[in-house]
Each structure stands twice: as structure tokens, then as C-alpha cells.
Amino acid sequence: MNKNKSKKVLGIIPARGGSKGIPNKNIRFIKGKPLIYYTIQAAKNAELLTDFIVSTDSEKIAEIACNNGAMVPFMRPKSLAKDSTESLPVILHALTEYEKINNISYDYFIMLQPTSPFRTGKDIDHALIQLTTCNSDSIVSVVDVGGSHPLRMKIINDDKMLVNYIFQEKENMKPRQKLEKVYIRNGCIYASKVEVLFNEKSIVGKSCIPYVMSKENSINIDNELDFITAEILMNKLV
Question: What is the CATH topology of the domain spanning 9-143+182-237?
């Protein structure tokens, strides 16, 4: 339940059925539970969500989501469940449909992708507290890139030569600790005012603050190695 009665927040878990890289990724078992279970649990444990729903085109995902305590109030149209479908129309559809069904208007939404099993209810609450008590319109979770710093990155040009991705007068050989901190989105949390969706046609507004997370909690399931890494870490956390 949302303790801040003046702000209504809808959590949206987008979980389409198709996945070319890893078939049925969102419901593949990891440590005895379907992947989406961990995001549903995080949403259930968050105190600042007014409601949360799962947006899916898959009857199987819908069944698993409902069995684990989530609401699936409608099925996502197949036209919004393609490989090329972006997040914006999916979130817009979920928000507008749920508002219409329940005759309610939300102030904020938060997108919680099921591929982030280590994001917690406290992460959701802490991010929403930061967002709703500041002058910004969005918050996005990030993680320090560590050794994968852009000043160390290379590209192979048309002449098949290895060159710096970012121009430098000479090769940057500074140790990681002396490089300016750089962050990358980790996919765990995207939250914004609802007006951002409609006015800016984006899930992230122009005024965005960071929610910095640890490397361990930022694991995003995208391939087989990620599944293996996540399962090992979960076993160690017990």
C-alpha cells in the first residue's frame, strides 16, 4: 500500500512471451522459481506502490504471474509484443487501460523489468522517495561501469584499424580508480511522472536523477551466462 496517499504510483512489469535469445526467458526457472517471480515479490514488498500489474501477451506468463500474486487485468495486444516493440507504447497501453478499467488517475509509473531478479522492494521505495521529493520528473537506476570505462573502449574503423572510441591525444593508461566515474543504466528501475509519457512521448523525462545500485544487485538476465551468474549469487546469499 502506498503510504503517501497524495501520490498514486502504478508499477508495470512488462513480460512478453516471445524471446529469440532465450526461449520463455521471463518464466524460465532460476533457483526453483520462474524469473518473473523475483520482480513480483519486489513489487509486493514495496510500500509505495499504489498498485502493480503485469503486461503480457502470453497466457502462460499471465497464469504464472497470477499464481505468484500479481494482477494481469488484460492481455497485451500482439501488435505490442514484437521483437521491435519499444517500451513506450507498452507502458502507455498498460497505464491507460488500467486507469480506464479502474476509473483512477496515477501521478507516477515505474517500469520493473522481470530480467532484474536482484532488485528489491526497498530499491523501489527508495527510488520513489527520491523521485517524489525532488524537483525532477524521472529517476533511472544505474551502476558504475567499473573497468568497462568508455576511455578504454575501442572501435575497428573502415580500414580495420583499432582506434579509440572517444578521441584522446594519446592512449589513456590511467588506473580505473583515477578515471572519472561513469554509470550505465542497469534496467532495474525506470520511474517518471505520468505526464512525461504524454507530453514528452518518453518513459524518461528531461529532468532525470540517478538511483545508484551495486554491481551485484544490477545483474540483468540477457543470456545464458547471466542465468548462471545469477543462480550462483542467489545460492551464496542464502
Answer: Spore Coat Polysaccharide Biosynthesis Protein SpsA; Chain A (3.90.550)
